[in-house]
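Example for tutorial group B:
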């Protein structure tokens, strides 16, 4: 993937003075598993906020619970516990009618643009559909707005009359973006929006998302398994492991000085453009697969794979807290203290 352009840092003071667009507190989502009485603890106590015009990158391996957080925010699945506020309004238990207005304010960009676009509809009808559904414009009057929105995502007016199967993967994702943004939502949940695309077009779609976000000013929950993707897009990053956030902080600080051994492992695996730097890096190879969310380990959930775990880690869960007194960088690890960091780099699990 060629490198997308780095996103400029946002003024932190601007975020602090505004009410968050999204505020999630103590979110829990448990599912009944196939076996009788078994429960999958997909999300277990996640709290996060996203400010106006801010991009939060939510990162984790498959099964970490990051997509379930996105589904709860969109109310595509019912939270087991916790609270979700959008623009200061509690949306945790919205009625069916309330859900209609929510669908105007929050939109999703799906991972697989092909399966999310109706193959029997033209692009023009697909992109106009949110306008018609929410009574913003009749189908006949929506044409100008659709053409303008297609232009914003880099597609010409002729695309309106084409069908999804006539487009490339990158073009289909642009159509998905146009449909998600035509109502100018407050919040966009982008769930792995480039992972199904060819590597050759990933960077151009990421750059497009960054440009649209800057121009339109929407807030974004950007969900991905790939830390290198959010390095260029996110203002802040939250790293999830087995249903919980283990580290969160401003993008630059988290990339420059990751505190949690899991984040250190993810970063050590991310490719860097400079081959000499790549050779110098010590890679942390984590042993085994993540444990089952049906029976998460006691103590720190990461202890079964952590290269620097100590006895305390097996019994005592660490709180997510600011351990080094450095702004809003929070970590859930017993070994992080104001004067030292665990360093998993150079160790092998
Ligand atoms: Fe590793 Fe212990 Fe820190 Fe968990 S609390 S990340 S097991 S050192």
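The residue assignment follows.
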């Amino acid at each position: 993937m060629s490198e997308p352009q780095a996103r400029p840092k946002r003024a932190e003071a601007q975020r602090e003075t505004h009410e968050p667009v999204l505020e999630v507190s103590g979110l829990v989502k448990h599912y009944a598993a196939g076996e009788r009485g078994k429960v999958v603890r997909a999300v277990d106590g996640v709290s996060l906020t996203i400010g106006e015009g801010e991009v939060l990158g939510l990162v984790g391996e498959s099964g970490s619970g990051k997509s379930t957080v996105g589904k709860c925010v969109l109310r595509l699945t019912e939270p087991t516990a916790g609270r979700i506020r959008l623009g200061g309004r509690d949306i945790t238990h919205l009625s069916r009618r309330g859900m209609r207005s929510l669908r105007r304010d929050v939109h999703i960009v799906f991972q697989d643009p092909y399966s999310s676009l109706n193959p029997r509809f033209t692009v023009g009808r697909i992109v106009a559909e949110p306008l018609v559904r929410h009574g913003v414009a009749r189908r006949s009057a929506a044409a100008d707005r659709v053409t303008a929105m297609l232009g914003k995502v880099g597609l010409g007016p002729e695309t309106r009359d084409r069908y999804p199967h006539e487009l490339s993967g990158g073009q289909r994702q642009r159509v998905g973006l146009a449909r998600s943004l035509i109502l100018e939502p407050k919040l966009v949940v982008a769930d792995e929006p480039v992972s199904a695309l060819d590597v050759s077009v990933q960077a151009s779609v990421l750059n497009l998302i960054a440009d649209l976000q800057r121009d339109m000013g929407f807030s974004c929950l950007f969900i991905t398994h790939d830390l290198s993707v959010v390095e260029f897009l996110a203002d802040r990053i939250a790293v999830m492991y087995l249903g919980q956030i283990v580290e969160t902080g401003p993008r630059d600080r988290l990339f420059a000085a990751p505190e949690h051994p899991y984040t250190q492992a993810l970063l050590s695996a991310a490719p860097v453009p400079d081959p000499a730097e790549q050779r110098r890096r010590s890679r942390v190879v984590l042993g085994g697969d993540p444990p089952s969310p049906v029976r998460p380990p006691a103590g720190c959930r990461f202890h079964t794979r952590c290269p620097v775990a100590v006895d305390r880690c097996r019994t005592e869960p660490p709180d997510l807290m600011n351990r080094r007194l450095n702004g809003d960088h929070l970590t859930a690890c017993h070994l992080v203290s104001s004067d030292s960091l665990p360093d998993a780099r150079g160790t092998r699990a």
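The first helix runs from residue 12 to 17. Compare this with the pattern of hydrophobic and polar residues in the output above.
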